[in-house]
Amino acid sequence: MEPHDLDWNIDTLAIRSGHQRTHEQEHSEPIFPTSSFVYGSAAEAARKFAGDEPGNIYSRFTNPSVRTFEQRLAALEGGERCVATSSGMAAILCTALALLKAGDEIVASRSLFGSTVSLFDKYLGKFGITTRYVELSNLEAWEAAVTPATRLLFAETPSNPLSEIVDIAALAELAHRHDALLAIDNCFLTPVLQRPLDHGADLVIHSATKYLDGQGRAIGGAVVGRDKHLEEVFGVVRTCGPCLSPFNAWIFTKGLETLALRMKAHAANALTLAAWLDAHPAVVKVHYSGLASHPHHELAKRQQRGFGAVLGLEVQGGREGAWSVIDATRMLSITGNLGDVKTTITHPATTTHGRLSDDQKAIAGITEGLIRIAVGLEDLDDIRDDLARGLDALAG
Ligand SMILES: *Cc1c(COP(=O)(O)O)cnc(C)c1O
Fold first, then answer.
1. What is the domain count for the chain?
2. What is the DSSP string of 157-218?
């Protein structure tokens, strides 16, 4: 980060930080599609390989397009350093490989992204790292699950799709009291609406695939935090190879330029839609922390600068009711993805959470009548009309 970047506000950082112009004096950030870099002499090559002189060697290690994205995201999250990865899952894997060893334990919220649970249980488990799951917002449950072997607390807040929230500052205090680190998956809110490091978290994880790109074009991820931790994460990425491609890094850099604008518009659309759904006779319940009736509304107001754009709604008629509302839409995209300008609609019980047992679904609050909507940036009247067709029919 350039020294002057520190004075800028987040909307400006999103547009201007991280880009050092080349001698071509380009205005817009360039793409560097090169696998390796050349040197003026054998001596210069030797100095760069030895680490005595900064500079690029090979794009698995560093690449200027990737660095621009990393510096911009670090600035937005208020972190010392960012390391980009080939996907959000690679960001979580590399964080675990960098900071944990056999015998260490993770305590995690049980409402995590499905692949994160598989990574922790099936793959990290093979190498002697065990994970315990607790209810996201229940701090006593976190405290009770921590043992002397716990090295990492991992949470997604708000949760998907019920918008439950944990007090990040309290969880960070708990982690540090037990000599553990706190990682927050900040995919759903992005630094525009929540900056976990400001509340004491040690690491922020991103799937750039979601709102950072915002237009559904590329897969990527990132980890942000302190230099000493990120140097370890960088070592894993550089050695094991899940690096971000320069093309995708460029997409994310350009995506960040409109992030503040998009997140505010996403959240405004979602808040209005949630209130409308809440009043609809076919809707049993709306899960959205922006509604005053949500159990974590006050905490959300304190900790976040907006409520995000993912909401859950329970409709009458169980699975049949939910499917009829989804199938009556003509514009909304029926897909498991989120974080896109296009509004997406999902039936979690049979898709994103379909592999959970009935008991696990009950604990996670994934009912058959639950629909998840990730509200996009289409005109709100059109989103409402598309949902009204199925909902009105269901209400009879
Ligand atoms: C999508 C997602 C991930 C994984 O990211 P990929 O880019 O798909 O690997 C992790 N956490 C959350 C909350 C996500 O939504």
1. 2
2. SS-TTT-----HHHHHHHHHHTT-EEEEE-TTTHHHH--GGGGT-SEEEEETTTTTT-SS--
